[in-house]
């Protein structure tokens, strides 16, 4: 006996089963949050070399593509065959990257270590200076008639805070071994990740072809082509933002170094690295980098800290209004509201890395939703432009 399937009710049943399955999985995850979190953490540790490999290959891909498609064919007058050109491009890509990282570590890391050691070594003297400043302020306040009990309470509170900060620094020393072990484990994963990234470059064309093959096998031709085009556009958004932001932050770090060196400020290398690294975070990055930098310089000279605050404000204005738009353009297509939303949400769950990748990831999601809505509206014969639904399009 042949069963007559009703397509409409079959679709409803499939959706109902999927909703039920996801509901059960979500409920299980909520009730067993710690176990699920531990499982994900273990899975991430296991997959960490592959994650590192993918990230390394993705970041180095623009250099590899330039060498493989443009520079090496031009240099050899197109006399080199494609496999040899690809292998040579991979070697040159990693050689250039390794050379730049070596120079950076050789020039920057020793200066950072010296600066941090100086700050830690002078921590007690900074605390004594702060205590002397407090004594002077409390003396002036006492002269004006403030009750001695309040003055004593203020002195004890500030002194307790100073001692707690000092003890925190000293107590963190025993944990250096744990940090060193975690660093060793991460370094091993990084080395394996570099090897994996090389294999990714060697099999790049095959991986892409296999991905397209799977798309056309699972979906009809129209949907497969749509998803491939969407993936290409998403890659352009994500890659353009990441590459542009790294270049922008590198330039800002160099400009900060030059400016501080001209102004003869302390801890030039340390502060420049902080400013450059935190600048990769849109909107909040300048503040995240400027505040600890000002505090670090304040330990040496309040006047220099004030000058640095003015200098970094001007530098970030230059970055936000001239350099950033020139390098990045409108790669994400997001308004300021959605940029801040993405930074806060992804930063909450992924920390610093989430604040960095949150904007391009959300831009990809935003692009997918935008295309989906446009298709639905076109099928209904409605315009897809937002201005068509505004009371006053001139205000958009």
UniProtKB/TrEMBL annotation:
Q: Which UniProt keywords apply?
A: Cell membrane, Membrane, Transmembrane, Transmembrane helix, Transport
Q: Which domain of life is it from?
A: Bacteria
User: What InterPro entries does the database record attribute to this sequence?
Assistant: AI-2E-like (IPR002549)
Q: What is its main location?
A: membrane
Membrane topology term reads: Multi-pass membrane protein
Spell out the subcellular localization from the entry: Cell membrane
What stretches pass through the bilayer?
Answer: 12-30, 50-67, 88-114, 179-202, 250-275, 287-315, 352-369
- Which family is it part of? Belongs to the autoinducer-2 exporter (AI-2E) (TC 2.A.86) family.
Q: What is this protein called?
A: AI-2E family transporter
Species = Hydrogenoanaerobacterium saccharovorans
């Amino acid at each position: 006996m042949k069963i007559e399937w009703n397509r409409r009710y079959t679709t409803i049943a499939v959706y109902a089963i999927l909703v039920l399955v996801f509901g059960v999985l979500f409920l299980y995850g909520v009730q067993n949050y710690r176990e699920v979190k531990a499982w994900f953490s273990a899975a991430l540790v296991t997959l960490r070399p592959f994650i590192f490999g993918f990230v390394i290959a993705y970041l180095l891909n623009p250099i590899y593509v330039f060498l493989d498609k443009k520079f090496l064919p031009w240099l050899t007058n197109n006399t080199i065959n494609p496999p040899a050109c690809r292998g040579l491009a991979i070697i040159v890509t990693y050689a250039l990257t390794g050379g730049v990282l070596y120079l950076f570590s050789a020039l920057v890391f020793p200066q950072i270590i010296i600066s941090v050691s100086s700050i830690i070594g002078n921590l007690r003297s900074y605390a004594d200076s702060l205590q002397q400043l407090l004594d002077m302020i409390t003396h002036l306040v006492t002269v004006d008639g403030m009750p001695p009990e309040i003055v004593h309470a203020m002195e004890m509170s500030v002194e307790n805070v100073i001692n707690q900060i000092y003890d925190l620094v000293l107590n963190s020393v025993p944990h250096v071994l744990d940090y060193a072990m975690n660093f060793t484990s991460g370094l091993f994963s990084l080395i394996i990740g570099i090897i994996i990234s090389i294999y990714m470059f060697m099999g790049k064309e095959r991986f892409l072809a296999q991905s397209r093959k799977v798309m056309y096998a699972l979906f009809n031709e129209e949907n497969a082509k749509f998803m491939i085009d969407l993936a290409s556009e998403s890659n352009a958004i994500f890659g353009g933002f990441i590459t542009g932001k790294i270049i922008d932050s590198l330039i800002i770090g160099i400009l900060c170094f030059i400016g501080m060196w001209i102004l003869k400020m302390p801890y030039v290398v340390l502060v420049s690295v902080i400013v450059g690294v935190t600048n990769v975070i849109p909107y909040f990055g300048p503040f995240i980098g400027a505040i600890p930098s000002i505090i670090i310089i304040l330990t040496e000279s309040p006047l220099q800290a004030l000058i640095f605050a003015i200098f970094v404000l001007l530098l970030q204005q230059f970055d936000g209004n001239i350099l950033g738009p020139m390098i990045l353009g409108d790669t994400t297509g997001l308004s300021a509201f959605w940029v801040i939303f993405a930074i806060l949400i992804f930063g909450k769950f992924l920390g610093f890395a989430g604040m960095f990748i949150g904007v391009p990831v959300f831009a990809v999601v935003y692009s997918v939703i935008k295309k989906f809505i446009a298709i639905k509206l076109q099928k209904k014969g409605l315009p897809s432009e937002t201005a068509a639904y505004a009371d006053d399009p001139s205000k958009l």
